[in-house]
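pinging the channel bc i need a second pair of eyes. not urgent but kinda urgent?? the chain im working w is below, pasted from the shared doc
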Amino acid sequence: MQIYTLKDMHNRIILKELKFADGFVQRAVGLLGKSSMSESSGLLIQTNAIHTCFMRFPLDLIFLNRQNRVLKIVYNVKPWRIAVCFGAFQVVECLGGIVPCCVQVGMQLCFVAE
């Protein structure tokens, strides 16, 4: 699994440890079964919709297009919910309540390989 640092266009760190779910099983399982996650970590999945069935904690979601531009941000998605963003290519999942207010729709984000 590839690991990146997620930064904004001003080189500010959004997440220090963003894992890219690049395999079918990794995408299908995602964060299911995890009891918690670090405030500095997240998961990147290539999809435009996610569910939080069987999750044990809320998630913040950042939907991105192919150019890594933020299309939609959904905060504190509780377990047993669905979130969709038509036009999105991928989504960043992270612990609910940690996406900083500096992340805005339309902003360009970048992934820096570790």
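so The chain has one domain: 2-113. and The first helix runs from residue 24 to 29. — does that match what u expected or am i reading it wrong
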